[in-house]
Amino acid sequence: MVYLGAMPKYKALIFDLDDTAIPNALDSVPSQRLVEAVKNAAGKLKLCAATGRPYAYAKDILLALELTEPCVISAGTQIIDPTNGEILWEVIIDPADVAQILEICKPYRYEIIIKNEMIGQGRAASDHVVIDSTNVMYIISSELADTETILETLKAIEGITAIGIPSWTHKGTDIHITNRQATKEHSIAELLRIIGVSKDKVIGVGDGDNDINLFKSVGLKIAMGNATDLLMSEADEICDTVENDGLAKIIDRFSTHQ
């Protein structure tokens, strides 16, 4: 994108974690370049993460970045205070839908983790019981053929949404399941209300197809250089890759011009 005259004044930037802020791997940490960019943006640009990770796997990254503004976690089902993990907003899955999801998954032996469980704490669908306050369910490391079948079958449950994401813990695909009213689009709309910023004053940065919902919620859409073709086609501009600190460069650029 080429700007003519003064750069528009943006007040907030919302970014994904995996393959945007950090490489897509379980043990990834933010680069020093990104940490410095976040620190230098303090008081100039509100910075919020929006990730599919539950708090157990997002906590260390959020703390390393020293974010202070509310952040979206658990595939859009929760907004938290990143300094202490306090839940500021949450949407849960209807218990009847949880039961139906588990029934659909019973023919498979994939690990299902619920809420803030860690990998290895989950169980196969046949061993799970319904939890009334379930906000998110993850089917871990599904094979491609099974992923397509599971996602197609889950479409019959009207109250939920399910999407396959490249796994950040294993090979294969993790399926994220939430209430239909708890996508990143819904949670970011609530986030903007909390921080008091209008949509047109917000930048969104992401890399995956699920970040289409992030793009629907912001004024300026930026795709990482390593983003999917679909997300790039929806973006206003493309930045550098995660390996080349594309997000840090965007934060520096927009915080400098505030």
Could you describe the 3D structure shown?
With 258 residues, this protein is an alpha/beta fold. The protein is 29% helix and 21% strand. A five-stranded parallel sheet has the order 2-1-10-11-12. Strands 6-7-9-8 form a four-stranded antiparallel sheet. β8 (160-166) and β9 form a beta hairpin. α1 (32-40) runs parallel beside α8 (246-256).
Percent in strands: 15-25%
Content-based structural category = alpha/beta
Unreliable spans are: 1-6
Mean pLDDT: 93
Number of strands: 12
Q: Kindly provide the radius of gyration, computed on alpha-carbon positions and rounded to a whole number of angstroms.
A: 18 Å
- Tell the overall outline: globular
Helix percentage range = 25-40%
The largest beta-sheet arranges its strands as: 2-1-10-11-12
User: Would you list the SSEs in sequence order as H and E?
Assistant: EHEHEEEHEEHEEHEHEHEH
Q: Distance N terminus to C terminus?
A: 18 Å
- Number of helical segments with 4 or more residues: 8
Provide a concise account of the structure shown.
The chain has 258 residues and is an alpha/beta fold. 29% of the residues lie in helices and 21% in strands.
Features:
258 residues, alpha/beta, 5-stranded parallel sheet, 4-stranded antiparallel sheet, 12 strands, 29% helix, 21% strand, globular, disordered N terminus
Write the layout of secondary structure elements.
Elements: E1 12-15, H1 32-40, E2 46-49, H2 55-65, E3 71-73, E4 78-80, E5 87-90, H3 95-105, E6 112-114, E7 136-142, H4 144-154, E8 160-166, E9 173-179, H5 184-195, E10 202-206, H6 212-215, E11 220-223, H7 229-234, E12 237-238, H8 246-256
Parallel strand pairs: 1-2, 1-10, 10-11, 11-12
Antiparallel strand pairs: 3-4, 4-5, 6-7, 7-9, 8-9
